[in-house]
Write a structure and sequence with these properties.
The structure is a homodimer. Chain A has helices spanning 7-29, 36-43, 47-53, 57-72, 81-113, 115-142, 152-169, 176-190. By secondary structure, chain A is mainly alpha-helical. The interface between A and B is large, with 36 and 36 residues. Chains A, B: This is Transcriptional regulator, TetR family. Chains A, B: Residues 12-72 form the HTH tetR-type domain. Chains A, B: One of its GO terms (molecular function) is DNA-binding transcription factor activity. Chains A, B: Keywords: DNA-binding, Transcription, Transcription regulation.
Amino acid sequence: MTKTKAGRPRSEKAKQAVLNSTYELLTESGGKKLTIEAIAQKAGVGKPTIYRWWPSLADIVLEAVLNQADVKIPVPPYESLNTTLRQFLRSSMKSINEGDGSNLRYLMSLAQQDESFRDRFRENFVAKRQEILKSILRQAVDANDISSTQDLDMLVDLIFGSMWYRLLIGHGTMDEVFADKLTDIVIKLGNSDEVC
Amino acid sequence: MTKTKAGRPRSEKAKQAVLNSTYELLTESGGKKLTIEAIAQKAGVGKPTIYRWWPSLADIVLEAVLNQADVKIPVPPYESLNTTLRQFLRSSMKSINEGDGSNLRYLMSLAQQDESFRDRFRENFVAKRQEILKSILRQAVDANDISSTQDLDMLVDLIFGSMWYRLLIGHGTMDEVFADKLTDIVIKLGNSDEVC
């Protein structure tokens, strides 16, 4: 796509307006008022433009929620596994409790109904969140807080897996206590190859 | 509900026919041909009878899948955490790979769309599967294979959480290797309070 000098910033601004409007509509109504029409109207962008940028409503939600996650769940500079992972997981729980949990449940549900969306959800959302968590774990290996023989992907599955499980089923709380338990478990597992 | 002497066995038989027919339709078509009509016809049971027994199609699927899980994932008599949990998790992976994975994904997706079904899914399905896994862990505590200070509910969340996560997202395999990794992790965590 070729763009004029003036075109690029304008389209970036419009794209951001679409994402912000989507996120506001999600927050206001729990997704009940969320349609392409409503987003287009709120963002002041034509429907055809929106359809050119995203294959479906679900894909707009995916990007809007990912954007928010990057803002709301900052990755603090690495200090120690104990401090940095705990802080990251506590922010994650907070974001989920403050409304993003229902957005995540909506995305996961759609991913089960549409295989091609599931691929995009895995690649454009889940893989990015996994990479952020894994970067913390990699720094922990560098700092000798996690043994270098540990399977970091498996640790990511344990952490995000149990969080998604509680979120989707609703049998357990998503709070600081849970964030702290997960942190303690990763510390234990991370050190378990050390000679004692 | 009062039942005649002859009525009870007949209705139990009809109920089982509905569950078996549901499971067969799920397996044959991946759920695509699954309607109350198709189930009623295959089972030779009237639609009004089916509606009297189950609030929705999803609830029939829930019970049919739970029934199959009990059959396909036997709980072996407790031997050791290493042997018994490994065997149980390997059977679980096998059942998921042989087709039950898509049924589970269907149920989880519905649970995100309908809050009252989510409650029934949690209570009538998930809680029962959690209880079965927890009974193995409880026997492990009795056999001193897991420290009595361990939070067994948390271990269940780690195991089933990471399994659901891989199943729903599709980023990792559901196989014996994964079953064995999970078993090894539980063994490590279970013993982590012991003085070394």
